Amino acid sequence: MKCIFCSIAEKSIPAKVEYEDTEVVAFHDINPQAPTHILVIPRKHIASLRDISQAHVELMGKLLKISSELARKLGHEERGYRVVINTGPDAGQSVFHIHAHLLAGRSLGWPPG
After folding, report:
1. Residue 92 CA: distances (Å) to CA of 83, 102, 103, 104
2. Where are the domains of the chain?
3. Can you tell me the distance from the alpha carbon of 90 to that of 92, in angstroms, rounded to the nearest whole number?
4. Which residues are catalytic?
5. Chain-centre distance of CA 111, in angstroms?
6. Percent helix, strand and coil across the chain, each to the nearest 5
7. pLDDT digits over 46-96, tens only?
8. Number of alpha carbons in the 13 Å side-chain half-sphere of residue 27
9. CATH superfamily membership of 4-104
10. d(CA 34, CA 102)
11. Of 37, 45, 60, 78, whose Cβ has the fewest other Cβ atoms within 10 Å?
C-alpha cells in the first residue's frame, strides 16, 4: 500500500528531512504542534501499532532510538521531549503509516489531548 509517508520515504514528495538511513526516515511535520515536531517513520509501510508483529520489534526499537538521538542533537535532552505514537482515528492517527511524533521546545501539558 502506498501512502503519503511512503512517497516521502521514496523522495517522490519533498520533505525537510532531519535523518535517514536504509530503514528509517525522520522529517519535520508540515503542521507542527511544537517548535520541534519531527515524524520518525519506517520506510516499510506498516499501517499502525496494532499491525506490529514480532518481526518488527527491532525496527520499532530503532524508531525510538532515532527519536531520542534527534532530541539530543536538537538540544532537547535537558529540558525534555515527548515521543507519541497515535493508533487509530480516535487517537488522532490521520496517516495510516506508523510514525512517532517527536515533540519538544515548549512545555507539554499532561494529560495530552
Report:
1. 14, 15, 15, 18
2. 4-104
3. 5
4. 99
5. 20
6. 30, 20, 50
7. 999 999 999 999 999 999 999 999 999 999 999 999 999 999 999 999 999
8. 22
9. HIT-like (3.30.428.10)
10. 9
11. 78
Question: Which set of grid coordinates corresponds to residue 94?
Answer: 490521520
Answer whether 23's CB lies under 8 Å from 62's CB: yes
pLDDT of res. 1: 60
Q: What is the pTM of this model?
A: 0.95
Please give the grid coordinates belonging to residue 73.
542533537
CA 101 from chain centre, in angstroms, equals: 4
Q: Quick check: 64 and 13 in contact, CB under 8 A?
A: no
pLDDT at residue 2 greater than cutoff 90: no
